Amino acid sequence: MDLDALRFGNFSQLGEAITDWNQMAKKLETLKGDAKDNVAGKAAKARWAGENATVTRTFVEKTAGEFADAHTQARTIARILGDTRDELVAFRTELTEAIAQGAKKN
Questions:
Q1: Helices marked H in the chain — which ranges?
Q2: Could you give the CA distance from residue 59 to residue 87 in angstroms, rounded to a whole number?
Q3: What share of the chain in percent tops pLDDT 90?
Q4: Under DSSP, is residue 38 helix (H, G, I), strand (E, B) or coil?
Q5: DSSP code, position 40
Q6: How far apart are CA 22 and CA 78, in angstroms?
Q7: How many CB atoms lie within 10 A of CB 92?
Q8: Percentage above 70 pLDDT, the chain
């Protein structure tokens, strides 16, 4: 990263991205619950018979699991972005303090 980019960088867009990913994670959490309880739950309780029943039930359960995976991924992305922003802000603070100390000595 360029020194000036760190020193004068505006990390508000990163904050907005964190907010967006947290909101997405909440929406996906709701969808995960709906998929598990309504879709997969009903598929598990259904009295299907024959070859198509096994294929369909497996497909529905797998699809419901994809919502859980998407929820986990959205939370992970939000956390990574948050950690990155926090580290950048901390590095900027350290840099600003080092520059101020250097200016006092000269």
A1: 3-8, 12-34, 41-45, 51-105
A2: 42
A3: 68
A4: helix
A5: I
A6: 6
A7: 16
A8: 100
Residue with tokens 């997969």: 40
Sequence letter at residue 12: S
Burial of 78 (0-12, 13-18, 19+ CB in 10 A): buried
Query: What tokens appear for 60 in the block?
Result: 């529905």
Task: Extract the tokens encoding 76.
Answer: 């992970």
The residues, any chain, with a CB within 8 Å of residue 48's CB and separated by 6 or more, are 56, 57
Global pTM value: 0.82
Q: Per-residue pLDDT averaged across 14-37, rounded?
A: 96
Half-sphere exposure of residue 49, counting CA atoms within 13 Å on the CB side? Answer: 0
